[in-house]
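Lab manual, section 2.4: Encoding a predicted structure.

Procedure: take the sequence of the chain (139 residues), apply the prediction step described in section 2.3, and record the output as structure tokens. A sample record is shown.
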Amino acid sequence: MLQISNNVAIPAREIEISAIRAQGAGGQNVNKVSSAIHLRFDIGASSIPGLYKERLLKLNDQRITKEGVIVIKAQQYRSQEMNKEEALRRLQELVNSVAVSPKKRRPTKPTRSSQKKRLDSKTRRGAVKLGRVKVTDSL
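Recorded output:
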């Protein structure tokens, strides 16, 4: 059971965890021991609330496939148990990130004084540029 919040939890049966061989340096250990963890979590078939599912599926995250499956590969540590904990922590973090609803944006208007300042600076800049105009003799 992976606890997301006080009232939301993911049952262990919905999380598919498999051990695979890790990549990279590590000598004989890398070739012999399956210490990396491959975690798969199907968003659509899960028992999490609909709001969470909807927001997770809308996320533009490379860990979420087109079919709506979260795939996390943890191979940071040399022990399988620590990699399993890391993968579960990352899944929890991902689900928690969509739990917080984004703040509603309130449109604002510039203040009258800021508008006046802006127009005054434009007028000043225009006057400077007018001072650079080539003077011609018109006699």
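Check your result against the sample. Residues 2-99 form a domain with the Double Stranded RNA Binding Domain fold (CATH 3.30.160.20).
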